[in-house]
Design brief:
The protein is of the alpha/beta class. It is built from six helices and six strands; from the N terminus they run βββαβαααβαβα. Helix content is 38%, strand content 30%.
Length: 156
């Protein structure tokens, strides 16, 4: 059975308050996950949504389709850029902490990606957007420690 993970990230100010939203579907199973951060970026939230979705899967080597409106995430994997970045230890790349974390969970599953246009009426992408925005606006915000201490100083 294929697991479908819908994801979205949001940042208000970019950088600013951020959040991610995830919807996991597997057969009749449905789960929503979201979290907000005090200070982060849209790209970090987009990538973190994918990571958290993959980390929620208990059974390794599952067939997983990630549906995302993030060209940053989808192109980085589908065009294999991230694997070149990894070989160079993510030198001069933004979000190396998240990309390293992504690669660990990515390699545990059989993952494919589907890019969709955001804010184009895809019901589960719209749901993820609501989850991400609500998380960013919640009072339960975490600190994106890497970004606040190191990541915000990195240049592409």
């Amino acid at each position: 059975m294929q697991i479908i993970i819908h994801t979205d990230g949001a940042a208000q100010g970019n950088p600013g308050k951020g959040g991610y939203g995830v919807v996991l579907q597997a057969g009749k199973h449905y789960k929503e996950i979201s979290q907000g951060y005090k200070y982060s970026t849209n790209n970090r939230m987009e990538l973190l949504a994918v990571i958290v979705g993959l980390e929620a899967i208990k059974l390794e080597q599952s067939s997983v389709l990630i549906v995302s409106d993030s060209k940053y995430v989808v192109d980085s994997v589908e065009k294999k850029w991230v694997f070149g970045w990894e070989k160079k230890k993510f030198a001069k790349k933004k979000n190396p902490d998240l990309w390293a974390r992504f690669l660990i969970v990515y390699r545990k599953q059989k993952v494919s990606f589907k890019w969709i246009k955001g804010h184009a009426g895809h019901p589960l992408n719209e749901r993820c957007d609501v989850l991400a925005v609500n998380a960013a606006n919640s009072s339960d915000l975490l600190v994106d420690e890497y970004y606040e201490t190191i990541g915000s100083k990195l240049k592409d």
